[in-house]
Design a protein that fits this description.
mainly alpha; about 70% helix
Amino acid sequence: MPVLETALPALLLWGILGYLLGSIPFGLVLTRAMGLGNLRDIGSGNIGTTNVLRTGSKKAAALTLLLDGGKGAAAVLLARAFAGEDAVQLAGFAAFIGHCFPVWLGFKGGKGVATFLGLWLALFWPVGVACCLTWLAAAAITRISSMGALTAAVASPFWALLLGHRAGVILAVLLAAIVLIRHHANISRIVKGEEPKIGQK
């Protein structure tokens, strides 16, 4: 856990700014702007990259991935430019919460994977890279996208410890717990052997 060095009002401000940044539903905005329909009426109704891909537009999905990851990174980098590491972690965490539970969408947002990876790449890039590689490896081995996300999230506290970012371990545990909660339906399907595999229609 980082040393508390930022005044409470400033911490509150960074939490609010991080949340508002994270709550921008880029997937929803992009699909509407590109004439792909209402994302809430497509597939799972989720605002994340996987569901955007179900519109048939790889361009929209790639942009959603970049922007959802970018807002997590932006929250971290902005806070780091003007405040201490306690505010940095809070802003990143708040951006993640904003993506998963955006006030504009009745607190029904995405599952947070892209934002999770983006904030870690900005917060402490070795952990971010390790999580990305973990996601790729698990997804390649199991051919299940959600398994890659779950494995990367669960591994993140261990990566933080092993790669020398002990101050981020508690943050990693909190983020991983929320990723698991947001993927409860996927976990149920994985256990039943019903989770769709990559490339499966």
